[in-house]
Amino acid sequence: MADFDATLQGKRILLIIAGGIAAYKSLDLIRRLKERGATVRVVMTKGATEFITPLAAGALAGGTVYTDLFDRESEQDVGHIRLAREADLIVVAPATADLMAKMAGGHADDLASAVLLATKLPVLVAPAMNPAMWAHPATQRNIATLLADGIRLAGPERGEMAESGEAGTGRMSEPLAIVAAVEALLSGDNGADASAKPLLGKHVLVTAGPTHEPIDPVRYIANRSSGKQGFAIAAAAAAAGARVTLVAGPVGMADPEGVSVRRVETARDMLAAVEIALPADIAIFAAAVADWRPAHEAVSKLKKDGSGIVPPLHVTENPDILATIAHRRDGRPGLVVGFAAETDDVLENATKKLSRKGADIIVANDVSPANNVMGGAANTVHLVTAEGIESWPQLPKDEVARRLVHWIAGRVPTKA
Length: 416
Ligand code: C5P
Hints:
Elements: E1 12-17, H1 23-35, E2 39-44, H2 54-61, E3 65-66, H3 72-77, H4 79-85, E4 89-95, H5 97-105, H6 111-118, E5 123-127, H7 131-135, H8 137-148, E6 152-153, E7 157-160, E8 167-171, H9 175-187, H10 191-195, E9 203-208, E10 213-214, E11 220-221, H11 228-239, E12 243-248, E13 259-263, H12 267-277, E14 282-285, E15 292-294, E16 315-317, H13 321-326, E17 335-342, H14 346-357, E18 361-366, E19 378-379, E20 381-385, E21 388-391, E22 395-396, H15 397-409
Parallel strand pairs: 1-2, 1-4, 2-3, 4-5, 5-6, 9-12, 9-14, 12-13, 14-17, 17-18
Antiparallel strand pairs: 7-8, 10-11, 15-16, 18-20, 19-22, 20-21
Helix pairs in contact: 1-2, 1-9, 4-6, 5-8, 8-15, 11-15
Organism: Kaistia terrae
Protein name: Coenzyme A biosynthesis bifunctional protein CoaBC
Pathway: Cofactor biosynthesis; coenzyme A biosynthesis; CoA from (R)-pantothenate: step 3/5; Cofactor biosynthesis; coenzyme A biosynthesis; CoA from (R)-pantothenate: step 2/5
């Protein structure tokens, strides 16, 4: 027998197969799990039985395949509550958009969804669907909900779809990649911890806070940014397992735990610190960088001389850090995220910024004074990508950060 990692030895996996063409890969997944010493119980949705037969799945798993919530025999045999409890881990592969929507909404109108609602076990989902369905705001909303509920994702991957030949993100991860995710989850201290580390092995660069642009040694141009959102993102990325570098403008906030912090004053210092911190897998530019700086910084404090003549303040444009990094040919981070703090036409301006600055994602928020975003504890954001716009309800900044980090983790391109 081949020499496998012992993590799966004696482990009980409940595999839920939903209805998609990728279901054929689940037969191989059963084999891979079993050869590593796991026992596999299988639940199939009605849709799944259109693609593969319960007989084939049952033959590979070596037991009954459960399909029906109201089947008298199987409910008397184990029942959905026992299915939901008698395992170490539940794997949903393939997870269709429909099944994930049901999970996010707490539906329980068939055996698979009832088991998923009744369980307290760690759950790993391996989505598989057409790229347009994956990119749809409804699916992305459901994914954010599932991640916030502690559910772990494996994939989906970029590639060609089996049925249409269309390229894009939505292909189910290969069985061995799912096995690796199962092993990672089971070998963690506990399922909840492991399920919260989707950025393990990634370097995430975050900018936060305002910049100060000196007029003279005691005066500067600044803005009302508190840095709270950016600091919360850095902390959430570190909690998600990433190595995090935070380049922070002048704010009075303590270094988040486990984050390497570089403190800077001006936009030019911030750009230099960002360049030094690269390469990164993900760059999140949350800083409210001053667009302009005084053209000349006076070496001594400007004096009011009583003549009534006010000194002119000439400004010049600062480098745009986001645009500079996003337009790099070499060493561009795999995913570049910008922010758009707007007071008018929020979504329109954010959409323009996406292409003008070359970002992959713009997180837009309305910073009109009535919303109290700058310095406040809550934020209402809209996620703008080339595929569309997803709007989230008003949430505490920590929660926006946590969800955003998980949402972004699901979009990091896999290295070729
Ligand atoms: O153009 P605007 O300042 O609204 O763009 C906001 C986005 O651009 C933010 O992600 C901000 O961090 C980034 N930015 C930058 N450098 C500048 C101005 C903005 O990185 N000089």
